[in-house]
Amino acid sequence: MSGFLRGTGVALATPFNKDGAIDFEGVTSLMEFCVNGKVEYLVVLGTTAESVTLTREEKKQLIAHIVKTNNKRLPLVIGVGGNNTAAVIEEIKEVDVSEFDAILSVTPMYNRPSQEGVYQHYKAINNEAPLPVLLYNVPSRTATNMTAETTLRLAQLDNIIGIKEATGDFTQVLKILKDRPKDFLVISGDDALALPAVVAGGDGVISVVGQGFPTEFSEMIRLGLAGEQKKAYEILFKLLPILEYAFEEGNPAGIKSVLKAKGICNDMLRLPLIRVSSGLEEKIKRFIQNNE
User: Fold this and answer.
1) Contact of 101 with 65, CB cutoff 8 Å
2) What is the per-residue pLDDT for 198?
3) E strands of the chain, at which residues?
4) Phi, psi dihedrals of residue 239, rounded to the nearest 5°
5) Strand 7-11 vs strand 133-137: parallel, antiparallel, or unpaired?
């Protein structure tokens, strides 16, 4: 059932015009670039989409545009998460998810629940969600790490099909891989660790940088899944500088600079996020020029 989420998914950025409005032409350009680059699926309204600065109406418009542009070509995953469990469930029920294949839901941020609180949060979502649910653990943003033990406990619930694991702690990834139930997906949320995770038995990645280099990134992960490690690592080593640059001054500022340099969309962000410095922009441009 969850096999369509093996490989490379990309957490789509939201292009903006200079007046701050959503750049729908840029959205289309980015989607076509990713589809043509042979990624396996698209993730909508994740952190990289600056979803916390989008209004409810903008989210509706963005969903409608992406669904129409995608035209059923690739599976779609929608991000719905927050630190108010009741509000998350209400949003899941309000949003039209009929064209989506799964929900990606981040661990609660800011209010720092205990592990039992995290478990009960996801259990409540599991009981109400109309689609399969992917857990999303990213303590660098939420200030709470969902432990491997909690993840494995949640993996027993019927509607929870996997996790996007972005702790940067490879030991934690290995613990989940060691004891996960059959068919429970372990998807890397760390671009630089995605290939090692796949080689260890993981199922792929939900990538930021992958939307800037969809052909290379998705091929790297496919090679890793196929056991062709040498070829896969050759691609990773080639991409390693841009993996650093893309996160040097925060996400999605870095990837938007990449997308601007590639002529896909501009690099506008919404406050409190700002564009990368001129020095980093030059490093990104130079890398792209030397690798095209």
Assistant:
1) no
2) 98
3) 7-11, 41-44, 76-79, 102-106, 133-137, 160-165, 185-188, 204-207
4) -85, -10
5) unpaired
Whether 59 is a known active-site residue: answer no
Angle between helices 229-248 and 253-261 (to 10 degrees): 110
164 catalytically annotated: yes
How many residues can be counted in the chain? 292
In three-state secondary structure terms, 259 is: helix
Which domains can be identified in the chain, with CATH numbers? 3-227 (3.20.20.70)
Calpha distance 48→46 (Å, rounded) = 5
How far separated are the first and last CA of the chain, in Å rounded?
37
Identify which of 42, 9, 13 has the alpha carbon closest to the alpha carbon of residue 258.
13
Whole-angstrom distance, CA of residue 16 vs CA of residue 7: 28
Residue 66 pLDDT greater than 90, yes or no: yes
Q: Average pLDDT, stretch 25-36?
A: 98
The pair of three-digit structure tokens given for residue 184, joined into one six-digit string: 């429970």
260 pLDDT above the threshold of 80: yes
Report the alpha-carbon angle 199-200-206, nearest 5: 70
Tell me the C-alpha distance between 209 and 154, whole Å.
29
Which residues, listed in sequence order, are joined to residue 162 by a DSSP beta bridge? 134, 185
- Chain mean position to CA 250: 15
pLDDT of residue 109 exceeding 80, the answer is yes
Mean pLDDT for 217-245 is 98
Among candidate residues 119, 122, 136, 245, the one labeled active-site is 136
What is the DSSP pairing of strand 41-44 with strand 185-188?
A: unpaired
Burial of 166 (0-12, 13-18, 19+ CB in 10 A): buried
Which one of 164, 245, 256, 260 is the catalytic residue? 164
pTM as predicted: 0.96
